[in-house]
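dumping these here so i dont lose them again. two proteins, back to back, each one seq then C-alpha cells. dont judge the mess
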Amino acid sequence: QAQLKESGGGLVQPGGSLKLACQAPESIFRSDSMGWYRQAPGKERELVATIMWRGSTNYANSVKGRFTISREKAKNMVFLQMNSLKPEDTAIYYCKASGKNDYWGQGTQVTVSS
C-alpha cells in the first residue's frame, strides 16, 4: 500500500502547465529528502527533482528552468510546478521519500499532447 499520494496529473497541450501534489504522513514527510521521479513507456524511471529537508533542491537537466519543486511543511505536502511542458515530459510521475526507508506513491499520469 502506497504511503504517499500524488494528485494533479492530466492531459495538457505543449507549452502548458500542471502542478502536481504529493501528500505524505508527517513521519514520512520528515525524511531526508522528498522527490519527484517519472517513468515514460519503455523507459527507466528517472529523477525529476528533489528537495532536501533543509531546503536545497536538485533538478534533472531536462527540466531545469521549467519545473520547480517546493513543499508546505504545515500540510506535509510536496509540489512540482511544471511549466512549458513538452511531449517528452509525458510519463507517470511518482513521489518518493528517501531516508532511513524509501517510500513511493502510486503515481499520477501526465500527458502532454496537442
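---- next one ----
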Amino acid sequence: QVQLVENGGGLVQAGDSLRLSCTNSEGTLSSYAMAWFRRAPREERKDLKFIASISRSGGSTYYADSVKGRFTISRDNAKNTVYLQMKSLKPEDTAVYYCAAWATGDDLLRDYYSDFGVWAYWGQGTQVTVSS
C-alpha cells in the first residue's frame, strides 16, 4: 500500500503561483511514476482530468494542453517528493488536485499517462481555489 499525501493547496488570486507537493511516509516514491490529476467543483471522481506526469527518474514529463507552459511537474527522489509548480493561475484551475502513483516504466507511461484507471495509488487531494 502506498499512502500519498498532498500539500500546498490554498486560495489565491488569478495570475498567482502555487506549488503543490506530494510525498509518502514509506519513502518509496522513487519506485513509481507519478502524476497529478484534478477534479473541478461539482464534478465526480470519474471526471478526473489528467494534468501532468513524470517518470521514475524524472527524465520524461507529460502535460495536459490546458496547463502546458504554466505548470511544471518535478520530483526530488532524495526528498521523496513530487511537485507541481503552478503559475499564471486562472479561475478555471480551481479544483481538488490529486497526486497518483504507478509502478511502471517509461514505455507504458508514455502510452497511458493520461488514463486515470492505470494509476494505482491516490492521495486524498488538496483544494486549490483561484479567485478572479
